[in-house]
Amino acid sequence: MTGTDALRPPYAGTRYPRLGQVPAFTAFIARDWADVRTAPDLPPGAAAAASVHRERLSAALPGRTLVAAAGHAPVRNDDAHYGFRADSSFVWLTGCQVEGAVLVMWAVPGGHDPVLYLPPPFRPGDTGFFADANHGELWVGPSAGLPEWGEALGVVVEPLDALAARHGDLRGAWAARSASTLAATAGAEVSAELESTLSRLRMVKDAWEITQLREAVDATVAGFAAVVAEVPRAVAEGLGERWLQGTFDRHARTFGNGPGYSTIVGSGAHAPILHWVRCDGDIDPDAALLLDMGVEARSLYTADVTRTVPASGRFSAAQREVHDLVEKAHRAGLDRIRPGVEYLDFHFAAMEVVAQGLHDWGLLPVSVDEALSPAGQQHRRYLACGIGHHLGLDVHDCSQAHYEDYMGAALEPGVVMTVEPGLYFHAHDLTLPPELRGIGVRLEDDVLVTDAGSEVLSAALPIAAGEVEAWTQAQLGQRG
């Protein structure tokens, strides 16, 4: 025997079986675990709100079995998955964020009988306890069981396997997009009408939802302050846009579920790029810094706020001129948010201001009226996106609603929306004078329609250029 062979254990070279196939291992790992009772981590009031939401959907679509699902986390690479985030309509209907869960609202005379089907957690004694790295409690920790979920949500909860035995009963049911895989297996129909109805119902927020959005906005406002306070370090140490992006994302994860969408931090020539989520540039201390950020609350309701701040604490003359025009358009849009006003009025009001301002600067090749006409739209070269959108569980909420419900309807109390005009002067746009190239400014507020008018939920962040400068200087630690 060589010296090397002497060091090898006696089982070296043996083909190992999977642990689940080793009786001694499975017997030993199954026993002597303390029973850790875990309750679902629900925001207060979530279950009651979801119950009301189900009642509203039941009244809107009687006589048809309805199906929604939480969904599954997609694979990121090889055996690693993205973090799971439950489908928004499913959460609206259940308050539950369990991966793989399915809600079936069984049609019964006079309404619906809702049943929530959940995959039971892998407890000691289950092979998945040690073999499933995504859901086994040995890997991810203790989780609530089906009885705990039923008690917390006030709804009948059954194991997911029980639904498989009822696939035949799902023929002819309407399924949301989130349940498309189940629909294909069970013969249900992925229904555009169900999706549009859910979007229409979700447009008007109830008191509980508004509370969640207030919390998300308040956490976002604090996140803006945290980010701007880090600008000097990002400049001095060359940490750049990504440091500021990471600062907000850490804040969102600490004070909510996380960022509600990919955080945008654009310095200088990156500010006009509408979805600048790469955030791999430096922070130019002389440039305007566009910050588009939103905290998603643990209930999954999200804020969506944008401010453009001077990294130095003071705008240049050109930056301030652009900011002033955007502010004027922003105020014109906000002025149109009140009950009874058609949804698109705020969009047209802001666009008129933008078109007039660009014309006054000599940037339009046509008159203001020609630009604003459906056959013109030349001003949109510098503002290609819309002026706002509904806000809620999704940052672009209720997107599956019929056009007449979304764009053609009058505003009513409980609607929450954004107003976000901007001007985006790209650094390589040769229609612009040199002093305007590379300036991007957006102002975005989250607005609640009230009985009396509207309330700007994000009003703690200023919008007037002078006030923005003063606020920025305060976060930077500068004295006026």
Automatic annotation (TrEMBL):
Keywords: Aminopeptidase, Hydrolase, Manganese, Metal-binding, Protease. Its cofactor is Mn(2+). CDD domains: Prolidase. SMART domains: AMP_N (SM01011). InterPro entries: Aminopep_P_N (IPR007865), Creatin/AminoP/Spt16_N (IPR029149), Creatinase/aminopeptidase-like (IPR036005), Pept_M24 (IPR000994), X-Pro_dipept-like (IPR052433). Coiled coil: none annotated. The keyword Metal-binding applies. GO terms for cellular component: cytosol. It is an enzyme of class 3 (hydrolase). Gene3D superfamilies: Creatinase/methionine aminopeptidase superfamily, Creatinase/prolidase N-terminal domain. It catalyses: Release of any N-terminal amino acid, including proline, that is linked to proline, even from a dipeptide or tripeptide. Residues 48-192 form the Aminopeptidase P N-terminal domain. Its EC number is 3.4.11.9. One of its GO terms (molecular function) is manganese ion binding. GO terms for biological process: proteolysis. PANTHER family: XAA-PRO AMINOPEPTIDASE 3. Belongs to the peptidase M24B family. This is Xaa-Pro aminopeptidase. The gene is pepP_2.
